[in-house]
Write a sequence for this structure.
């Protein structure tokens, strides 16, 4: 009886689980690429979103758009007090 690539009746995949490791390997590679792309693009957008509501309120007060009372009222709303 001839055995073409058959290792003790196990087939070409050894124990038959070789494909699982290949799928896991490629899944990790793809997840790594996605993670790196997210980090690359999110860092550029964070600089835009850094200005908080309190900073905007301070700027509006400094430019004279709102009064001191309005500033204090809105600041207490932002802080939740």
């Amino acid at each position: 009886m001839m055995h073409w690539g058959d290792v003790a009746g196990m087939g070409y995949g050894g124990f038959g689980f070789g494909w699982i490791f290949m799928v896991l390997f490629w899944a990790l590679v793809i997840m790594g690429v996605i993670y790196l792309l997210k980090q690359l693009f999110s860092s550029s957008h964070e600089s835009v979103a850094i200005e908080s509501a309190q900073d905007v309120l301070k700027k509006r007060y400094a430019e004279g758009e709102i009064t001191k009372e309005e500033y204090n009222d809105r600041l207490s709303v932002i802080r939740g007090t």
User: Anything to note?
Assistant: Residues 51-81 form one domain. The mean pLDDT is 79. DSSP finds three helices and no strands in the chain. Residues 54 and 75 are 7 Å apart (CA to CA).
